[in-house]
Design goal:
The radius of gyration is 39 Å and the shape is extended. Strand 4 (270-271) and strand 5 (277-278) form a beta hairpin. Among the domains are: 13-196, no CATH class; 228-356, Immunoglobulin-like (Sandwich). The longest helix is centred in the C-terminal third of the chain and has 36 residues, at 482-517. It has 716 residues and is of the alpha+beta class. The strands form four sheets. Strands 2, 7, 8, 9 and 11 form a five-stranded antiparallel β-sheet that branches. It is built from 27 helices and twelve strands. The chain is 65% helix and 9% strand.
Length: 716
């Protein structure tokens, strides 16, 4: 008896049948509602995604055909799975009656199921559709995703029976099996969606094997080399009109290198539409006084001076004989002459170039200098973004900390007065800036002073208005009684909310309504909808003010916390590389666009990290300082800041490290830095220079990582 495994718990057939009909229904009826809804949503989403994915094989996807084939495959693979499970049950019950055979279990069935799919792939697919139909879908992805969905369906049927047989107080069985099956299904789809082509990568390994050494050891391009270059020229006229003899042939020079060609007037080579090529007039080229044993190279320049190596018309790399001379023949190549220079005599240039051996000069190459400037620019982008990010993330982090904002509760009249005072202060700041700007010469002459003045006036007057507005309105309404105070505050709140309501109505007309009814009809009702939005939002504000009878007041701090967190999450969700694409349009290509984009992302990320550090502080010092009657600013300075400084330093250093790494990528889309050079060199197939860029990036990131770790050791 000791060798027998414990008996499996009996299931509920009713719940299993319900889930067989509708996935998750058995679990839902058995009061595991979230489990049932999760299963149903998973089956529907993964099934729909599978149908969409396998239909993308055709140029014009046929989703009905894809659905039909996929459903048939799910049924076929489901029957195959049931057959294997039944076979296992019969073998373990009547043939192999021992624990080892029973332990074969799920993993063995999974292996057999997978092998059966491989071996029986062709007959299974042939039963799902005709060859011309199967040609319109990804058959491999369809088969394996259908098998995974069938396995998931069968699993949830068994799970429904188990869940239905459980008592209410029993713990629900694990969903690890379902999660594993869903991961396999997603992998099958992802393999197709991402065009994962491992065979191609293996077959064409030689491509990367050629580039890898050039990227791995690119340092020859990092230095300049001294080299003597001798170029001699012979003018050639082509085409050659009747009666023309062309430029004179060069005469031999007894002291200097020379070349000469005959004839100097001929016809250009012609390529026809079928790919055939008729060479031009054959030239005899001679030269002398070159370095014996050296190799010279022949180039051809068209009439506008663009040089190229003439291919397929003769030898272009020639070794000089012991007398310093050479003789060769070359046909005039096919040359495209721009229409702007097609008039008159077309004079080409035959070039013979001799290059001496390169000599190491201990000087950096121009490309290496550019790369060093680029990496310095990258470091500065990361540094500037981190600096400005700290300045704005620090105050925002306190607004995004729940433990600091939740206790802030204001009476309705104080809240209304503060918001009204804030709005008035901002308007006064903008008005004052408008009066001062012409005195300084306007934005064209003094943009920075005007911006700083506007920022100072708006912040100062807005803050004063927020503080005094609540006190002033509270004092005015204090003697009117509770009901009268509530009514007046509600009316003021409604009047203030009418302004954003007006713009919301206008935005609805220009946005959603214009999509449905067209821009012209939406524009005709724009004013009406704007006023309707103002009235609706105003009434909502008045209703809120009248119905709110919370004795503690309105949780203004929680509202600010929710708004701040939402904005930070939205800004942080979009990567800096996306912001660069937008800011390049605003400020142009270069590091300024990259700095702005990275700063914006840094503000959101650091503010969130700072706020989480604030939320995790010990509340004891906070309560102690509050008990002394300290103001909110004093509480933050003496109870919050000392606790979070180490975390702030750690987060800031880590963010600086991230910013430097991110700034290397921003250049790929015009954000300046080493990335801008990297993408240019990659497009020109200059892989040694690409390697230099990658090496500099790696060295910089490793160095900054070491520096940041040392700073954390000392100050955190």
């Amino acid at each position: 008896m000791a060798n027998h495994l414990p008996a499996a718990p009996k299931g509920s057939p009713l719940h299993a049948i319900l889930s067989l009909i509708v996935p998750g229904l058995g679990q839902f009826v058995a009061r595991a509602r979230s489990r049932g809804l999760t299963i149903l949503a998973s089956v529907l989403i993964l099934g729909g995604l599978s149908i969409w994915t396998i239909a993308q094989e055709a140029r014009f996807p046929n989703y009905e055909l894809s659905f039909s084939i996929y459903v048939k495959l799910v049924l076929e693979t489901g029957f195959l799975l049931v057959f294997l499970l039944s076979l296992r049950y019969l073998l373990t019950k009547f043939v192999f009656r021992d624990p080892a055979a029973e332990a074969f279990g799920t993993y063995g069935i999974a292996i057999l199921f997978f092998l059966a799919l491989i071996l029986a792939q062709e007959p299974i697919l042939s039963m799902a559709g005709r060859p011309e139909d199967l040609a319109q879908v990804y058959t491999g992805t369809a088969l394996y995703s259908a098998a995974a969905l069938a396995a998931l369906w069968f699993w949830q049927v068994i799970d429904a029976g188990r869940v239905g047989a459980l008592a209410d107080e029993n713990k629900l069985p694990s969903m690890a099996g379902a999660i594993l099956i869903m991961c396999l299904l997603i992998f099958a789809l992802g393999y197709n969606i991402t065009d994962f082509d491992l065979p191609k990568a293996i077959r064409e390994y030689k491509d990367i094997s050629i580039l890898f050494p050039r990227i791995l050891w690119p340092w020859k391009e990092a230095f300049a080399y001294d080299q003597e270059v001798v170029e001699e020229f012979q003018l050639i006229q082509a085409p050659c009109p009747e009666g023309e003899s062309g430029p004179p042939s060069n005469e031999p020079d007894p002291d200097e290198p020379w070349i000469s060609a005959t004839p100097t007037c001929g016809e250009i080579g012609v390529r026809d539409l079928s790919g055939g090529f008729a060479p031009g007039t054959e030239l005899t080229i001679t030269g002398g006084n070159f370095t014996p044993g050296m190799e010279v190279h022949i180039l051809w320049k068209n009439p506008i001076g663009n040089p190229f190596v003439p291919r397929g018309v003769g030898e272009t790399d020639i070794t000089i004989d012991e007398n310093g001379e050479f003789t060769t023949k070359l046909s005039i190549p096919s040359v495209v002459i721009p229409e702007s220079t097609a008039a008159g005599a077309q004079i080409h240039t035959l070039v013979v170039r001799e290059e001496s051996e390169e000599v190491f000069s201990l000087r950096l190459s121009d490309e290496m200098k550019l790369a060093l400037v680029g990496i310095l620019e990258t470091i500065m982008i990361g540094l500037m973004a981190t600096f400005f990010g700290i300045l704005l993330a620090f105050p925002l982090s306190f607004l995004a900390a729940r433990n600091l904002m939740a206790p802030i509760v204001l009476p309705l009249q104080d809240l209304v007065g503060s918001i009204a005072g804030l709005a008035i202060g901002i308007l006064l700041g903008a008005f004052a800036t408008g009066q001062i700007a012409p005195i300084l010469g306007g934005l064209e002459q003094a943009p920075i002073p005007i911006f700083l003045i506007a920022l100072l006036l708006v912040i100062t007057l807005g803050t004063l208005g927020f503080q005094w507005g609540g006190r002033l309105l509270g004092s005015l309404l204090k003697n009117l009684g509770t009901n009268a105070s509530r009514i007046i505050s509600a009316l003021i709140l409604g009047a203030m909310l009418a302004v954003p309501g007006y713009y919301l109505g206008q935005a609805f007309s220009r946005g959603a309504l214009s999509i449905v009814v067209g821009e012209e009809r939406a524009a005709a009702s724009e004013v009406l909808l704007a006023y309707a939005g103002a009235v609706v939002v105003a009434l909502l504000g008045i209703s809120f003010g009248l119905l709110n009878r919370n004795p503690r007041g309105i949780p203004f701090g929680s509202l600010i916390y929710a708004i701040t967190r939402t904005i930070l999450n939205i800004v942080r969700a979009i990567e800096a590389i996306v912001y660069v694409v937008i800011f390049v349009i605003w400020v142009g290509l270069g590091p300024f666009a990259g700095t702005i984009a990275l700063t914006l992302h840094t503000i959101a990320s650091l503010a969130k990290q700072y706020s989480e550090a604030i939320e995790s502080i010990d509340p004891g010092p906070l309560e102690a300082v509050n008990a002394t009657g300290a103001t909110r600013l004093q509480t933050i300075v003496y109870a919050v800041v000392p606790q979070v400084v180490p975390y702030f330093i750690s987060f800031t250093i880590y963010r600086w490290d991230i910013n430097v790494r991110m700034s290397t990528v921003l250049g790929l889309v015009g954000g300046g830095g080493i990335g801008f050079l990297l993408i240019q060199w990659q497009r020109l197939y200059q892989w040694e220079l690409v390697g230099i860029s990658l090496w500099l990036i790696a060295i910089t990131v490793a160095t900054l990582d070491y520096v940041s770790s040392e700073i954390r050791k000392r100050y955190v």
